[in-house]
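Long-time lurker, first post. I've been practising inverse folding by hand and with some scripts of my own, and I keep getting stuck on stretches where the structure tokens seem ambiguous. Below is the full token string for one chain I'm working on. Before anyone asks, I'm not after the true native sequence, just a reasonable design that respects the backbone. If someone could post their per-position residues I'd love to compare against what I wrote down in my notebook.
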């Protein structure tokens, strides 16, 4: 690839890298008495600086950048991370010298480094981490260097593994697509004032594989090569200019039928500009010279000493098919979506059931997943907000897991958690709050499970053919597979639908008519098969989850919700999203009190009163305000007149959504219940 010649003009000739060497490295080139070196130059420490800019201004989370793209709109970032590999310095004679990267166990692995420019503040808190990294660290032979070359991308042999068990920095789910396509090499996310997002994601596409990590090749590798001349490692930085990357994109308009921005597809019109600017071919058009990376003034610093080696990571295991699985679903229920990398099997589901109920999945051995998701309560817990294994309270009410397999997203507020496997990681490893308490102790969890011979045999059966079947990645896959079977669909209302007129009382039938009436408009948030806001299943496009503000709070008359339960606003920063939560399923609703995201309404009768008023009035205290007057309340929460009898009928209908068989089904029950105390040994 041609260098950015604009960055070369006026630069001095090649300069020794000696200014970056530690004295210990220099001593290796001398006998200590002033004699000239007699052998080849020794190793020299180097720290290559990468800086992110937006049209020359420093990139920063929480900052709004004006006039970006072809429409010159304001834009605020929410993520910027880049994988670079095959980093080389250019010698005075034009030859290349690979940089031997430090194996630091965090941001560098083999020849791959993760550059992370976001700090998890403002909108970067969506998927970000507080840790940043702007350096590629390693060593080269001492000498004169005047250029740098590198690849934006993960090498093929590392690109298609299992991110859930990969070593750092390849363990980031935010940087991973799927088995076949592998990692996102470059992730740039942000939004404009309207709240609409615009992203540039670059990674390999059109890859051929079996969905379990076995990939034979990719038609569009999309690994961009960069060569910058006139680069002095002692003085300069490699500058990534986001403003340039977005300069040929319309951030306010997206091509019809495609995801927001450029999602890496060589057929997405929104990718034509970013691809060209990165020097990547698009739609059969040859790649022009890149314009995104340039040489700029750097940040001088002495590189640290070589860290202790962490060992060479072994190959990433890939899952086997496992025994066959047959769905046993209620009449009319579609097959749930099953991730390609986690096919269902009887052995895997049974393993997941055992793990789900095992208190050893909390670090102090006091709680299991089932502690907050009790079968007799339709896999909720009956508490206002749940309490973790260390006593720390969670900020939100524990939702029912009934029919969770049909939910496009899985929590009250987070629009990004879309699979049961991803969600299982939160209670296991989350630290704010602590729930099961294994944050940063993944190896300890795996070792605890592997020490049990029963589990070793069950993991072998569930993940046949794997060299190391007991892993955290496989553990969450088994839990996800079990939770996918928690399907509830045999309530009195379902039996009435099937033709049993006696299944519903006269009062419940009147309540049913009210529920589906235009007067109450309940169906806007609780419609369809699952009495929820959206439904996802196999063979159907995944619906987008609607998030709604039901007028529960209007703190101080500002529309605010009490922190930290501010709804979708936490992820978008758009005030119009204040208090917007995902409407839950109403199936088994009589068993899942108390209600609302914070458990602040105790009974079904009080829930109906809330909606009949059109919002809740909090008369005193720090959360005082009239939710009915909230400027951010969803438009169909308007209130309605309701007699005492009508309210009673409506409650009867809601009670008819209870599936008693679901709460006693032995397929979902605690396998340790027969043991003393009903707990794992």
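-- Answer (accepted) --
I ran through it position by position. Result:
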């Amino acid at each position: 690839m041609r260098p950015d010649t604009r960055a070369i003009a006026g630069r001095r000739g090649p300069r020794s890298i000696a200014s970056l060497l530690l004295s210990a490295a220099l001593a290796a080139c001398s006998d200590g008495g002033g004699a000239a070196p007699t052998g080849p130059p020794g190793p020299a420490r180097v720290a290559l600086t990468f800086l992110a800019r937006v049209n020359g201004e420093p990139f920063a989370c929480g900052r709004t950048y004006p006039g970006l793209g072809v429409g010159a709109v304001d834009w605020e970032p929410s993520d910027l991370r880049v994988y670079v590999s095959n980093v080389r310095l250019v010698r005075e004679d034009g030859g290349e010298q690979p940089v031997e990267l430090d194996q630091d166990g965090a941001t560098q692995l083999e020849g791959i480094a993760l550059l992370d420019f976001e700090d998890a503040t403002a909108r970067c808190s969506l998927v970000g981490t507080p840790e940043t990294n702007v350096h590629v660290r390693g060593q080269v032979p001492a000498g004169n260097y005047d250029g740098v070359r590198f690849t934006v991308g993960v090498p093929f042999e590392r690109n298609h593994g299992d991110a859930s068990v990969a070593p750092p920095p390849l363990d980031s789910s935010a940087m991973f697509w799927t088995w076949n396509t592998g990692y996102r090499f470059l992730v740039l996310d942000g939004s404009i004032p309207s709240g609409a997002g615009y992203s540039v994601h670059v990674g390999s596409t059109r890859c051929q594989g079996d969905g379990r990590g076995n990939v034979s090749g990719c038609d569009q590798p999309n690994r961009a090569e960069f060569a910058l001349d006139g680069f002095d490692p002692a003085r300069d930085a490699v500058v990534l200019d986001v403003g340039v990357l977005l300069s040929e994109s319309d951030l306010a308009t997206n091509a019809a039928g495609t995801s927001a921005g450029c999602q890496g597809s060589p057929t997405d019109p929104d990718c034509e500009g970013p691809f060209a600017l990165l020097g990547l071919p698009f739609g059969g058009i040859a790649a022009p010279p890149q314009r995104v990376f340039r040489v700029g003034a750097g940040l001088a610093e002495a590189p640290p000493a070589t860290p202790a080696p962490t060992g060479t990571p072994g190959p990433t295991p890939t899952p086997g098919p496992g025994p066959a699985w047959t769905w046993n679903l209620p009449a009319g229920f579609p097959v749930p979506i099953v991730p390609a990398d986690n096919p269902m099997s009887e052995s895997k589901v049974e393993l997941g059931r055992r793990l789900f109920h095992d208190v050893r999945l909390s670090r102090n051995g006091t709680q299991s997943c089932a502690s907050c998701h009790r079968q007799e309560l339709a896999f909720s817990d009956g508490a206002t907000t749940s309490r973790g294994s260390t006593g720390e309270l969670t900020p939100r009410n524990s939702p029912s897991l009934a029919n969770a397999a049909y939910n496009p997203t899985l929590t009250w507020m987070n629009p990004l958690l879309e699979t049961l496997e991803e969600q299982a990681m939160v209670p296991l490893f989350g630290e704010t709050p602590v729930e099961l308490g294994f944050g940063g102790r993944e190896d300890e969890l795996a070792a605890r499970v592997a020490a049990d011979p029963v589990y070793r045999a069950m993991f072998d059966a569930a993940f046949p053919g794997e060299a190391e079947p007991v892993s955290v990645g496989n553990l969450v896959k088994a839990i996800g597979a079990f939770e996918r079977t928690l399907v509830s669909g045999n309530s009195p209302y379902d039996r009435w639908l099937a033709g049993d007129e006696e299944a519903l009382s006269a009062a419940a039938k009147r309540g049913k008519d009210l529920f589906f009436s235009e007067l109450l408009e309940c169906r806007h948030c609780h419609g369809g098969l699952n009495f929820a806001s959206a439904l996802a299943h196999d063979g159907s496009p995944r619906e987008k989850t609607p998030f709604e503000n039901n007028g529960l709070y209007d703190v101080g008359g500002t529309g605010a919700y009490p922190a930290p339960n501010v709804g979708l606003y936490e992820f978008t920063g758009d005030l119009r999203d204040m208090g917007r939560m995902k409407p839950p399923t109403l199936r088994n609703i009589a068993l899942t009190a108390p209600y609302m995201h914070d458990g602040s309404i105790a009974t079904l009768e009080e829930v109906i009163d809330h909606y009949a008023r059109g919002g809740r009035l909090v008369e005193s205290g720090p959360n005082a305000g009239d939710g009915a007057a909230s400027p951010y309340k969803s438009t169909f929460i308007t209130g309605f007149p309701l007699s005492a009898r009508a309210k009673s009928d409506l409650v009867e209908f809601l009670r008819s959504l209870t599936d008693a068989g679901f709460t006693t089904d032995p397929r979902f029950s605690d396998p340790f219940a027969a043991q003393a105390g009903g707990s794992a040994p």
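A couple of notes from the structure itself: The longest strand covers residues 73-91. The radius of gyration is 28 Å. Happy to go over any region you disagree with.
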